């Protein structure tokens, strides 16, 4: 499931760059390539395999996020980061136990069994990976590496790209919302077209 969903944006990016189309055959080939890369990572062990792939991914993602933050709409994004931090501090305690007791707006009911089962299926693998990677670590290092830093990085990533998309849609040329409605995986590459070096950043996003 994860591979199947993951290759869709990769296929969309390659189609955007090379015009190869988005077909079932291409996605199967991409799944095979991803499986081969994962197998190489496992065979080479945690230090030589998984760590190298993780470092490559982290470096590319960081460079892309920094590029998006600095090149366009910097002040708007920084203001949004500050506002979102305040909003989270103010509302997270109240929203955490919220269960629609008094107001039935059906928001929670829209989360399907698909997501629920998907998360449960992933939990043993993630748990074992965290346990292996946390061996000989202190509790402080564990909390920093497993809970605090991933949450912070995810928050910044969503804030940077989400507010960039909002700015383009609200004050720029638009097209992000239309891309999401027509084909979600293409939306990132439509966003990148608003920046210089869009072909390069799109290629790095595919990787």
Automatic annotation (TrEMBL):
* GO terms for MF: transmembrane transporter activity
Task: Kindly list the residue ranges recorded as spanning the membrane.
Answer: 60-82, 113-130, 142-162
What keywords are annotated for this sequence in UniProt?
Cell membrane, Membrane, Transmembrane, Transmembrane helix, Transport
Question: Which InterPro entries does the record associate with it?
Answer: BCCT_transptr
Membrane keyword on record = yes
Say if the entry is tagged with keyword Membrane: yes
Q: Which domain of life is it from?
A: Bacteria
Cell compartment(s), UniProt: Cell membrane
Q: How does it sit in the membrane?
A: Multi-pass membrane protein
- State the PANTHER family in the record: HIGH-AFFINITY CHOLINE TRANSPORT PROTEIN, HIGH-AFFINITY CHOLINE TRANSPORT PROTEIN-RELATED
Descriptive protein name: BCCT family transporter
Annotated organism of origin = Oceanidesulfovibrio marinus
What are the top taxonomic ranks of the organism?
Answer: Bacteria, Pseudomonadati, Thermodesulfobacteriota, Desulfovibrionia, Desulfovibrionales
């Amino acid at each position: 499931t994860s591979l199947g969903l993951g290759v869709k944006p990769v296929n969309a990016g390659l189609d955007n760059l090379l015009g190869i189309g988005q077909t079932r055959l291409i996605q199967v080939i991409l799944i095979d390539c991803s499986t081969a890369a994962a197998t190489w990572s496992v065979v080479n062990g945690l230090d030589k395999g998984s760590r190298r792939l993780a470092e490559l991914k982290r470096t590319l993602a960081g460079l892309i996020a920094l590029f998006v933050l600095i090149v366009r709409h910097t002040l708007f994004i920084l203001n949004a980061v500050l506002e979102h931090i305040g909003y989270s501090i103010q509302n997270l305690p109240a929203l955490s136990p919220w269960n629609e007791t008094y107001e039935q707006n059906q928001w929670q009911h829209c989360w399907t069994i698909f997501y629920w089962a998907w998360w449960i299926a992933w939990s043993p693998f993630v748990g074992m990976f965290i346990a292996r990677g946390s061996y000989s670590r202190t509790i402080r290092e564990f909390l920093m590496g497993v809970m605090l830093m991933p949450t912070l990085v995810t928050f910044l990533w969503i804030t940077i790209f989400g507010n960039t998309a909002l700015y383009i849609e609200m004050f720029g040329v638009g097209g992000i919302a239309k891309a999401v409605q027509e084909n979600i995986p293409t939306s990132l590459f439509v966003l990148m077209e608003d920046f210089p070096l869009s072909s390069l950043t799109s290629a790095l996003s595919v990787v």
